[in-house]
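Not sure how to ask, but would you mind making up any protein sequence you like and the tokens describing how it folds?
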Amino acid sequence: MTQRIALVSGGIGGLGTAICRALAHAGHRVIAVDLGGRDERVAGFHAALDGLDVSFAPLDVTDFDACGALVARLEAEHGGIDILVNAAGITRDARLVKMDKRAWDDVLSVNLDGVFNLCRHVVDGMAARGHGRIVNISSINGQTGQFGQTNYAAAKAGMHGFTMSLAREVARKGVTVNSISPGYIDTEMTRAIREDVREQIVAGIPTGRMGQPDDIARAVAFLTADASDYLTGVNLPVNGGLFMSF
């Protein structure tokens, strides 16, 4: 098995941690990036890794130049980034008639601009080396829309449009670009939902449960495997059957 260098944005979040663990278990050297200045969360992240080969680097994914500087440093240290998982994301929910400009800008900046900022800096190196795997973590709400989430749904739908377009550009260079659209996953964000609302959500999921972060992490491991070289431009729904389409 070839050890690859993997970069995971939003890496210390609930989904990000599971993704980092799955990639490390697959034999890769993993760098998790997330906002700095949160020592307690970073310490908890490292404790959850059980000694796996995962390091942490602070990064604001909305800062184009900072993304470029980090990628350049990692390429100098490791010889190139082979896998990029864009999992950084935030919500700022409100009905459009009550949404202020900052709530729109913040969500688009993290959830969509962050994808551009990292992809733009890693894709040339991947193409030059003839191998790369990019996975963008979208959302079921980018497929269906959601009340109070015009900003989030727009960003997540835009993420897959970006995915398909970049996939076409780099397919002949040995680089695949795919997205995953999670449904409702048992994370800190969904645990904040009122219990009665959570029960209604689960009642509507054909599998009868919310997803676990590991459900998403296994999908990432699949799409980033060397053998997954004939899958590109794909949006993989991991939602327990909540939304089905073809």
